[in-house]
Specification:
The complex is a heterodimer of chains A (119) and B (728). Chain A is of the alpha/beta class and 119 residues long. Chain A has one domain: Rossmann fold. Chain A has five helices and five strands; from the N terminus they run βαβαβαβαβα. In chain A, helix 2 (34-43) runs parallel beside helix 3. Chain A is globular, with a radius of gyration of 12 Å. Chain B has five domains: 28-185, 2-Layer Sandwich (Beta-Lactamase); 230-316, no CATH class; 338-438, PAS domain (Beta-Lactamase), CATH 3.30.450; 445-515, Helix Hairpins (Orthogonal Bundle); 522-720, 2-Layer Sandwich (Heat Shock Protein 90). Chain B is 51% helix and 17% strand. Chain B has 20 helices and 17 strands. In chain B, the strands form four sheets. In chain B, strands 2-1-5-4-3 form a five-stranded antiparallel sheet. A five-stranded antiparallel sheet of chain B has the order 7-6-10-9-8, with helices on both faces. In chain B, strands 12-14-15-17-16 form a five-stranded mixed sheet. The longest helix of chain B has 57 residues, at 28-84. Chain B is rod-shaped. The chains are: A alpha/beta (119), B alpha+beta (728). Chains A and B meet through helix 1 and helix 5 of A and helix 13 and helix 14 of B. Chain B: Residues 704-713 have a biased composition (Polar residues). Chain B: Keywords: ATP-binding, Cell membrane, Coiled coil, Kinase, Membrane, Nucleotide-binding, Phosphoprotein, Transferase, Transmembrane, Transmembrane helix, Two-component regulatory system. Chain B: Residues 310-337 form a coiled coil.
C-alpha cells in the first residue's frame, strides 16, 4: 500500500496506470496538469511519482526536478514514448529510480513499481 | 630558254658548244697542260714564221746581189776570150765558177747572136733556157726560172768591150741552196720551242697537281660533310696559335685553346674580354700575317668554320627535335592514359582522331574510326542525340554539354559529354573536340545519396509516427490487459482480449523498430569486444533456435578484436541477422555459421552470418535493405530489421552486404574444426551470407593486454549478472 501520483498529458494513460496500480492496492492519483501534480506532491509527499516525459507545458524531467525539490524522498519512475539518451541521463542524474519506455506492459509496470517501492 | 622558232641558229653553235662542254669536262690538270702547250706552240710558230721570213728575205737579197756580182764578174772576164774565140778558156771560166759555190746550178756564155759557146751542163744544154732570160737594152736582167729541180734565179749580164756587145753571160743560182741556212734556223727554233714546251708542261703540271690536290682535299671533305661527317679539318694547322702570338692567357675567349679555327673567322663571336689589340683590323694583326694563306687556304678555313657552324646548328636542331618529340610523347601519353574519351571531328562531323580510351570503348582501332561518323559507331538513338548536340555546337560556335547514356556494352553507362568547337589561328571553326567522362559511378553515388536522404526523411516520419502512436497503443494494450483480470479466463471475451493484446504487442514491436530505425544516430559507443558481443547473442538464441532445428556454428577469430561501438545496437544487428537466417530455414531447419575475422592491415574486422537456407532470389536482392521490404508473410515481420541493421552498421562507419547463393570460398575459408561440424553438402540449400565490415577502434586494441582485459572484464560482467533480453 503506497501513495502514488501519475502525471500524463493523456488522461486515458493516467487513468490506465491508476486502474492497474489501484488493483494492486495502492492509492493512486492521476494528473494531467504539471502544477497540480507538483502542488499535490508538495502538500503530502507521495511514495512514488510516475511521470511522462512529454507533457503539456513542461517536460517530465523538469517536473521531476520540481518534485524532488518539494519532496526529496519521493521515488520517481519516468515513462516515455520517445526515449532519448539525454532525458534518460538527466532523469537518473536528478534522482529518478527507473526509466521505462511506453507502451509499458501491465505486468512490467506492476513489477517495476514493486521493485522501486521495495528499494 | 630553248628557242623553238629558230632552231637553225642553234645548229651552227652546236660543235662549238660541244667543244666548250668537252673543255669544261676536262680535268684541271689537262686544262693547264693544254693551255701551256697551246701558248708555247703558238709562240714557236710565230717566232719561226717571222724569223724565217726575215732570214729568207735577207738571204735571197744577198744571193741576188752576189749572183749579179758573180755574173758581171764572169761577163768581164769572158770579154777577152770571146774576142779571141778562145772557147777553151770560156769553158774553164764557167767550170771554175761552178766549183766555187755549191749554190751555182749552172753558168753559160752566149755570143751576140745567141749561140751557146761554153756551159756547165753535163747532160747536154737545155735549148729553151737561152730564151728564158733575154736581155734588153744591154742591161743586167734577173728572172726566176721554174725547173724540175726547183726555182732557179737566172742572172743575165751582157759582155761588153769598148761599147760593143760581144755576147751574154748567164748564171743560175738555186733558190733552195740559197735558203738552206734559213731552214737550219727554223729547225733550231723548233728545237728550242720543244724544250721550252716540255719544261713549261712539267712546271705547269706540278703547279696544277699542287692546286688540285688541295682542291680535291676540299672536295673530299665536302663529300664527307654531305655524308654527315661534320668533324672535318681542311685547313692546315696554323704555324703559331693566336694565344701564343698574343700571350694573352684569355681562357674565356672562344678562340683560346682552339687549334683549328682562325680567330678572324670568329669575329663577332668574340666577347668583350678580348684585348683591344685583337679587335683591330686583322690585316695589321700579327696572327693574320703569320697564318693567313692563299685563296685556297682561305677557302679551306672558311669551309672548316662552315662545318663547325653547321655542326652547332645541327646539334641545336637535334636538341629542338628531341624536345619536340618529348613534347609529342608527353601529349600522346596524356591522351592515351586519360580515362576520358577524347575525339576530334572535322566540320562534317567525321572522326579525325580518337584517343585510346575511346578506341577501347568502341572496340575499334583508331585507323578504322577515322573518317567514320557517330552513326557508324553508336546505336541510332544515341548517335542522333550526339549529332544534334555536335551540330548545335558547330552552328552556335559554343561549348555544349550533355549527359548521355550508353547501353552498347551491356549495362547502362552514363557519360558527361562536352563538345568544344575548334578554331584555327584566324578564328574560323574548323572542327569539334568531344570529351566524354564516365559518370556512371557518380550517378550511382547520386542515387545512393538520394536513397539515404529518402531513408532519413522516412526515419523522421517514422519517428514522429511512432512517438504519436505509442501512447494510444500503450493505453489499448494496458486496458486489454487490465480487462483480462475482470473476466473469466475461459470466456470468449477473455480470448478476444488476448487477441487485442497480442496484436497490440505486434504494433508495439513495429513502433519499436520504427523508433530504432529513426534514431540510428543516437548511440552510446565505447570500446567493446566484438567476439563477446556476438557470442552473447549466439548463446542467448541458440537454445530457441535448436528447438527450430537450427544449429549455430561459430568460427571466431581468437585475437579479440576491439571495436568502438554501441553494444546494445550491435547486438540488435546480430539478433536481426540470426533471426533472418533462422526464418529463412523455418521449414527445413539447417545451420547458421557465424564467422569473425580480423584484418589488421586493413584496420577492420569482418563478421559473416551465413545460413544453409534456400537463398534470396536475385530480383529481391537489391531491395532487402529497404524499409518495409519483407518476403515474410503478413504479420510475421515488419521488414524493418535489415534496414535498421543497415543504419546501425553505417552509423558505426561499417558496411553490410548480402550474397546469395553462398560462394564456395566461404566454406573453404572456415577452420577444419568448423568444417567438420557443417551439415553434409546434400542437406544444404544455396544459402545466404551477410557480411558486415566494422572498422577497428585503433591499432593497439588488437590482441594486446588492453584488448584482453576489456574482453575478460566484459566476460566477468556477463558471468555475474545474466544477460537481459536485449532491447528490441
Amino acid at each position: 500500500m503506497a501513495r502514488i501520483i501519475v502525471l500524463d498529458d493523456v488522461s486515458d494513460q493516467g487513468t490506465l496506470v491508476k486502474r492497474i496500480l489501484e488493483r494492486k492496492g495502492h492509492e493512486v492519483t492521476a494528473f494531467t496538469e504539471e502544477e497540480e501534480a507538483i502542488n499535490a506532491a508538495a502538500k503530502t509527499a507521495p511514495d512514488l511519482a510516475i511521470l511522462d516525459i512529454k507533457l503539456k507545458k513542461m517536460t517530465g524531467v523538469e517536473v521531476l526536478e520540481e518534485i524532488k525539490k518539494v519532496a526529496p524522498s519521493v521515488k520517481v519512475i519516468m515513462l516515455t514514448g520517445y526515449p532519448t539518451l539525454e532525458t534518460a541521463r538527466e532523469s537518473v542524474r536528478l534522482g529518478a529510480s527507473d526509466y521505462c519506455v511506453k507502451p509499458i506492459d501491465k505486468d512490467e509496470l506492476e513489477s517495476k513499481v514493486e521493485e522501486v517501492l521495495a528499494m | 630558254m630553248p628557242d623553238f622558232k629558230a632552231p637553225s641558229r642553234r645548229i651552227g653553235f652546236r660543235p662549238f658548244a660541244g667543244v666548250l662542254r668537252a673543255v669544261e669536262r676536262m680535268k684541271f690538270r689537262t686544262k693547264i697542260a693544254l693551255g701551256i702547250s697551246g701558248i708555247v706552240i703558238a709562240m714557236a710558230i710565230i717566232f719561226a714564221v717571222t724569223l724565217g721570213e726575215m732570214a729568207s728575205r735577207a738571204v735571197l737579197s744577198e744571193g741576188r746581189k752576189r749572183g749579179r756580182t758573180v755574173a758581171e764578174n764572169l761577163a768581164m772576164r769572158a770579154a777577152e776570150p770571146l774576142i779571141a774565140d778562145d772557147l777553151l778558156r770560156l769553158k774553164n771560166l764557167v767550170d771554175e765558177l761552178k766549183k766555187v759555190s755549191p749554190d751555182i746550178v749552172y753558168a753559160f756564155i752566149m755570143d751576140e747572136s745567141g749561140n751557146v759557146l761554153a756551159h756547165t751542163f753535163q747532160n747536154g744544154f737545155p735549148v729553151e733556157l737561152t730564151e728564158a732570160n733575154p736581155i734588153s737594152d744591154d742591161n743586167f736582167s734577173l728572172v726566176i726560172v721554174d725547173t724540175s729541180a726547183g726555182y732557179i734565179y737566172d742572172f743575165a749580164a751582157p759582155v761588153r768591150l769598148a761599147g760593143s756587145n760581144l755576147g751574154t753571160v748567164r748564171l743560175g743560182l738555186s733558190r733552195e741552196q740559197l735558203l738552206e741556212p734559213v731552214s737550219r734556223l727554223n729547225v733550231a727554233v723548233l728545237a728550242i720551242s720543244s724544250v721550252s714546251l716540255l719544261i713549261a708542261l712539267i712546271a705547269g703540271l706540278a703547279f696544277a697537281h699542287r692546286v688540285t690536290r688541295r682542291i680535291n682535299l676540299l672536295k673530299k671533305h665536302a663529300e664527307s660533310v654531305v655524308m654527315g661527317n661534320l668533324d672535318v679539318q681542311s685547313a692546315p694547322l696554323p704555324t703559331r696559335h693566336c694565344w701564343e702570338c698574343m700571350n694573352c692567357n684569355l681562357t674565356t675567349c672562344p678562340a683560346y685553346g682552339d687549334p683549328l679555327r682562325r680567330c678572324w673567322y670568329m669575329a663577332g663571336h668574340l666577347d668583350d674580354n678580348v684585348p683591344d689589340s685583337c679587335v683591330e683590323s686583322c690585316r695589321d694583326c700579327v696572327i693574320y700575317r703569320q697564318n693567313a694563306g692563299d685563296e685556297i687556304q682561305n677557302l679551306a678555313e672558311a669551309f672548316d668554320v662552315m662545318s663547325v657552324t653547321l655542326n652547332t646548328h645541327i646539334k641545336e636542331l637535334r636538341e629542338a627535335e628531341a624536345n619536340l618529340r618529348r613534347q609529342q610523347e608527353l601529349l600522346r601519353t596524356i591522351m592515351t592514359v586519360t580515362p576520358d574519351f577524347i575525339a576530334l571531328f572535322d566540320n562534317n562531323l567525321r572522326y579525325m582522331s580518337a584517343n585510346k580510351a575511346f578506341t577501347d570503348f568502341v572496340h575499334m582501332p583508331e585507323e578504322e574510326i577515322i573518317g567514320k561518323t557517330d552513326e557508324d559507331l553508336f546505336a541510332p538513338e544515341n548517335a542522333r542525340r550526339r549529332a544534334i548536340e555536335a551540330r548545335a555546337a558547330l552552328e552556335t560556335d559554343q561549348v555544349r554539354k550533355a549527359e548521355i547514356s550508353d547501353t552498347s556494352n551491356g549495362g547502362e553507362r552514363w557519360f558527361h559529354v562536352v563538345w568544344t568547337p575548334v578554331r584555327d589561328s584566324e578564328g574560323r571553326t574548323v572542327g569539334l573536340l568531344r570529351t566524354s567522362r564516365d559518370m556512371t559511378e557518380v550517378r550511382e553515388y547520386q542515387e545512393q545519396l538520394l536513397h539515404s536522404q529518402k531513408m532519413e526523411s522516412l526515419g523522421k516520419l517514422a519517428g514522429g509516427v511512432a512517438h504519436e502512436i505509442n501512447t494510444p497503443l500503450g493505453v489499448i494494450l494496458g486496458y486489454a490487459q487490465l480487462l483480462q483480470d475482470d473476466v473469466d479466463h475461459d470466456s470468449q471475451i477473455y480470448k478476444d482480449l488476448r487477441t487485442i493484446e497480442k496484436q497490440a504487442k505486434v504494433c508495439r514491436q513495429i513502433v519499436s523498430d520504427l523508433l530504432g530505425f529513426s534514431r540510428r544516430a543516437e548511440s552510446t559507443k565505447r570500446e567493446m569486444c566484438l567476439n563477446n558481443s556476438v557470442m552473447e547473442v549466439v548463446t542467448l538464441v541458440s537454445h530457441t533456435f535448436y528447438l527450430d532445428h537450427v544449429e549455430i556454428i561459430t568460427d571466431m577469430d581468437d585475437r579479440m578484436p576491439i571495436i568502438f561501438g554501441d553494444p546494445e545496437k550491435l547486438k540488435q544487428v546480430w539478433i536481426n541477422l540470426l533471426n533472418n537466417a533462422r526464418d529463412a530455414m523455418h521449414e527445413t531447419g539447417g545451420a547458421i555459421i557465424v564467422k569473425t575475422r580480423l584484418y589488421t592491415p586493413l584496420q577492420k574486422v569482418t563478421i559473416w552470418v551465413a545460413d544453409t537456407g534456400p537463398g534470396i532470389p536475385p530480383d529481391a536482392m537489391p531491395k532487402i535493405f529497404d524499409p518495409f521490404f519483407s518476403t515474410k508473410a503478413v504479420g510475421e515481420g515488419t521488414g524493418l530489421g535489415l534496414s535498421v541493421s543497415f543504419g546501425i552498421i553505417e552509423d558505426h562507419d561499417g558496411s553490410i552486404e548480402a550474397t546469395s547463393p553462398l560462394p564456395n570460398s566461404f566454406f573453404e575459408s572456415l577452420t577444419p574444426q568448423t568444417q567438420q561440424k557443417l551439415p553434409p553438402p546434400n542437406d544444404r540449400g544455396p544459402g545466404t551470407v551477410f557480411v558486415v565490415d566494422l572498422p577497428l577502434d585503433h591499432e593497439e586494441s588488437i590482441d594486446t593486454p588492453v584488448s584482453s582485459s576489456i574482453c575478460k572484464q566484459e566476460q566477468q560482467e556477463l558471468d555475474t549478472e545474466p544477460a537481459d533480453t536485449p532491447a528490441a
